[in-house]
Design goal:
With 537 residues, the chain is of the alpha/beta class. It contains 17 helices and 14 strands. The chain is 38% helix and 20% strand. The longest helix has 19 residues. The radius of gyration is 24 Å and the shape is globular. The chain binds 3-methyl-2-oxobutanoic acid (KIV) and zinc ion (ZN). Zinc ion (ZN) binds next to loops.
């Protein structure tokens, strides 16, 4: 059996389905580019039938990321479709511009889903799978089929459904534990059983897709791989429906760190993992828990004296991976006040960013401002500046000035000056329970967008009193709206994440709030995002 495990990233599809993880189309495109650089084999770019915006976002990714400019190999670009003609045709409309397009179609096979959700008999399910996989293969050579809720399906029935999918031309068979119900031994047996009992499966790639409801997604995925699956469906930081999906970083680093046990490898450049993790957290507003494996802030921190003592004597006493293997090392004293534009350009290239002249100009201006306030500028600082300066949503309102009075002697008061969409300035002042509250109230007086602040988190990027502060917020639009998730249409308020970084944490807080509000304004349709026409492949 081959030793290569394909990494299928679904951060932009299953990940984006996590409550509040909505990303703008510009962010999706940027993330897809970063995933391609990371070396994922397949990018599930979205669910094109969900809305015209989703279709357009997948199409742009197919055009711009699915065709390698330098003659290299671009990742497969995949679109999700329910087993219906409309969904499959929409998925094809979106992915066909990629050099290697894939349609991923699914239909539930568990008794509970067939009876209550689909209201279809098992025979009807088999016949729908046959017809819809055949339709997908008539459009696209590369078709993946998933029997949704396979973890709770009858294995004998699965063998039958999968056999029909293979006969209709499916090339990848993905086995989802949709509700995160199975345990590793059971999932291993399920995959082995499928491989042994499904006629024609030797011509296909078997894939695994696990959810984390019992905290077992990574363990189940590894158990599936041990049984012979050669594609793992994952998301960065493990974001996804409910408790999330299997996290990319955990599976990849388990295979890497325990190579002698698995004897398997992936195409992932592990040194980019932390960068991707930060990017996803900044774009979605979903903060990574500090003790999260591989990418949490404490993943390589040693606090206990006995551990620190051991580490000083030999690094491997308490470290099974080197932080630099995942890009978590904080190189000190990278650049400073006297570093020039070229030094910044070279450092950014080393970090994997190929910036345009305008991007470099913008970043250099921010870098100089920061260097005036902070003696040493680390890689982590540079990453924060990139997120804050370059990877922001379209700016409808920008922060032009901010003044705060606070402390024990009076009422926290903030005055903000915002530049609006036509370049006009708006000045408002407000009193709050603290300086951030006062700033947010003043911003609300300028921008009349019905939103509730649901999350606010702040942390220092590096140690030291002059550190950059990083703020992540999430806001929820107060109007409920119908959102079509992969599984069903639901009424839910959309929420938006925002990110800001500055040496002044009140300024960082204002920027984060504005960035989330700008996303909400763009989504409201009042201010359409500027989307350039894709170039035909
Ligand atoms: O969890 C699931 O079943 C899915 C399918 C669409 C593969 O996400
Ligand atoms: Zn899923």
């Amino acid at each position: 059996m081959e030793s290569y495990v394909r990494i299928f990233d679904t951060t932009l599809r299953d990940g984006e389905q996590s409550p509040g993880a909505t990303m703008t189309s510009a962010e999706k495109l940027e993330l897809a580019r970063a995933l391609a650089r990371l070396g994922v084999d397949v990018i599930e770019a979205g669910f094109p039938a969900a809305s015209p915006d989703d279709l357009e976002a997948v199409r742009r990714i197919a055009v711009e990321v699915g065709n390698a400019a330098d003659g290299g190999r671009a990742p497969i670009i995949c679109g999700l479709a329910r087993a219906s003609q409309n969904d499959i045709e929409k998925a094809w409309q979106a992915v066909r511009y990629a050099a290697r397009p894939r349609i991923h179609t699914f239909l539930a096979t568990s008794p509970i889903h067939m009876e209550y959700k689909l209201k279809m008999s098992p025979e009807e399910v088999v016949s729908r799978v046959k017809d819809m996989v055949a339709l997908a293969t008539s459009l696209c050579q590369d078709v993946e089929f998933s029997p949704e809720d396979a973890g709770r399906s009858d294995p004998e029935f699965l063998y039958r459904v999968l056999e029909e999918a293979i006969k209709s031309g499916a090339t990848t068979l993905n086995i989802p534990d949709t509700v995160g119900y199975t345990i590793p031994e059971e999932f291993n047996k399920l995959i082995s059983g499928i491989i042994q009992n499904t006629p024609g499966i030797d011509k296909c790639i078997v894939s695994v897709h696990c959810h984390n409801d019992l905290g077992l997604a990574t363990a189940n995925t590894l158990a599936g791989i041990a049984a012979g699956a050669r594609q793992a469906e994952v998301t960065i930081n493990g974001i996804g429906e409910r408790a999330g999906n299997t996290s990319l970083e955990e599976v990849v680093m388990a295979l890497e760190t325990r190579k002698p046990i698995f004897g398997l490898h992936t195409g992932i450049d592990t040194t980019q993992i932390v960068r991707l993790s930060k990017m996803v957290s900044n774009y979605t507003g979903i903060v990574v828990q500090p003790n999260k494996a591989i990418v949490g802030a404490n993943a390589f921190a040693h606090e206990a004296g006995i551990h620190q003592d051991g580490m000083l004597k030999h690094q491997q006493t308490y470290e099974i991976m080197r932080p630099e293997m995942v890009g978590a090392s904080h190189t000190k004293l990278v650049l400073g006040k006297h570093s020039g534009r070229n030094a910044l350009k070279n450092r950014m290239q080393d970090l994997g960013y190929n910036l345009s002249v305008e991007e470099l100009d913008k970043l250099f201006a921010r870098f100089k401002l920061l260097a005036d306030k902070k003696k040493t500028i680390t890689d982590a600082d540079l990453e924060a500046l990139v997120s804050d300066e370059l990877y922001q949503p379209r700016e409808i309102f920008t922060l032009d000035g901010l003044q705060v009075a606070c402390g024990t002697m009076g009422m926290p008061t903030a005055t903000v000056r915002l530049r609006g969409p036509d370049g006009e300035l708006h000045v408002k002042a407000a009193v709050g329970t603290g300086p951030v509250d006062a700033v947010y109230k003043a911003i609300d007086l300028v921008i009349d967008a019905p939103a509730i602040l649901t999350e606010f988190s702040i942390h220092a990027i590096t140690e030291g009193i002059d550190a950059l502060g990083e703020v992540t917020v999430r806001i929820a639009g107060s109007d409920g709206e119908h959102v079509l998730h992969a599984m069903q249409e639901v009424e839910s308020p959309r929420s938006y994440g925002g990110y800001g970084a500055d040496t002044d944490i009140i300024v960082a807080s204002a920027k984060a709030y504005l960035s989330a509000l700008n996303k909400l304004l763009v989504a409201s349709g009042k201010f359409d995002e500027v989307v350039s026409e894709p170039v035909a492949a």
